[in-house]
Design goal:
GO terms for molecular function: hydrolase activity. Helix content is 41%, strand content 22%. The longest helix is centred in the first third of the chain and has 24 residues.
Length: 301
């Protein structure tokens, strides 16, 4: 036989009614208000949180870098010395493999000389003169050495270009009075390429356009290197450098720097690949193009 043993009011809540069952054990029943109170006191049960979109993106990027590092280390085991740097202007992400190791520039230094010429004209409140452009055009499009020497000396040579490089943030570059023996890093070269495109950088819109036009119209025989990475419909700029020196036993330094863009803005990537001790120029070209292609395969830009 059931009987009510206790009835107590809970402040602001319902009643908890305790009954005795026929066996003498208490049986507790909760009114609606009491159930609400019990639910409020009980700890919430939630599903475990998964990784955020940012966490997933960071993990994917780390995997890309790890795989590219591995591919380049494997390549480096049987090839001449090289370094590479990549800067994706859309995401702000950069990648370096031995990016701060110095290499001879050979003719890629001509982009630095061009940039310094453009800045000097800007500082004087003018556009480049016809005489300056008459040297700059063959310097970039045909890699004309005589035109380069004349423009380099006209700017003020090593002292002037060193001062200009500091302004551009090229902290790892050491200018030589013989401009082709200037030493630079892949990291510095992608920084230079970024300055040629940065609307907030030191170059005016007119100067950026001049640099783009020249580097986008190099002689067909010299559009190897970075352009090998471009896909159909994409736009490239490029400047290559190649040189053989008796000091290196007649082996070749072969370098390529440039930028790949798409009209729809889906791609905006600068790439610099530097190498030396190549057996032939052709072997060096094959190497730098292979390295550039590996960066696109693994970084998926």
């Amino acid at each position: 036989m059931l009987g009510v043993a206790v009835a107590a009011a809970l402040g602001g809540g319902g009643l908890i009614v305790a009954r005795m069952n026929s066996g003498g054990a208490p049986a507790t029943a909760l009114t609606a208000g009491g159930a609400a109170l019990a639910a409020a006191v009980a700890p919430p049960v939630s599903a475990p949180a998964g990784p955020s979109a940012a966490d997933l993106a960071a993990a994917d990027r780390a995997k890309q870098v790890e795989q590219l590092d591995a591919a380049l280390r494997k390549l480096a085991g049987g090839t001449p010395d090289f370094s590479v740097a990549v800067l994706d202007r859309r995401t702000g992400q950069s990648y370096h493999y031995r990016g701060k190791v110095r290499f001879d520039t050979a003719s890629i230094v001509k982009v630095q000389i061009l940039t310094c010429m453009l800045l000097r004209a800007q500082d004087a409140g003018r556009r480049p003169t016809s005489a300056e452009m008459a040297l700059a055009k063959p310097m970039i499009r045909r890699s004309d050495n005589d035109a380069t020497t004349r423009l380099y000396n006209r700017l003020g040579g090593r002292t002037a270009v060193t001062r200009c490089n500091k302004r551009l943030g090229l902290t790892g570059t050491v200018v030589n009075s013989r401009w082709g023996l200037t030493r630079t890093t892949a990291a510095d070269q992608v920084r230079l390429l970024a300055e040629l495109a940065d609307t907030r950088g030191p170059l005016s819109a007119s100067s950026r356009k001049t640099a783009f036009t020249l580097m986008n119209t190099v002689d067909k025989a010299q559009d190897w290197g970075v352009p090998a990475v471009a896909r159909k419909g994409e736009i490239f700029t490029v400047k290559n450098g190649w040189d053989t020196r008796s000091a290196d036993g007649g082996l070749w330094a072969v370098n390529t720097i440039g930028r790949i863009t798409a009209k729809n803005g889906a791609v905006d990537v600068s790439v610099a690949v530097l190498s030396h001790n190549n057996r032939t120029m052709a072997a060096g070209v094959t190497l730098v193009e292979k390295i550039a292609k590996l960066t696109r395969t693994h970084l998926r830009y």
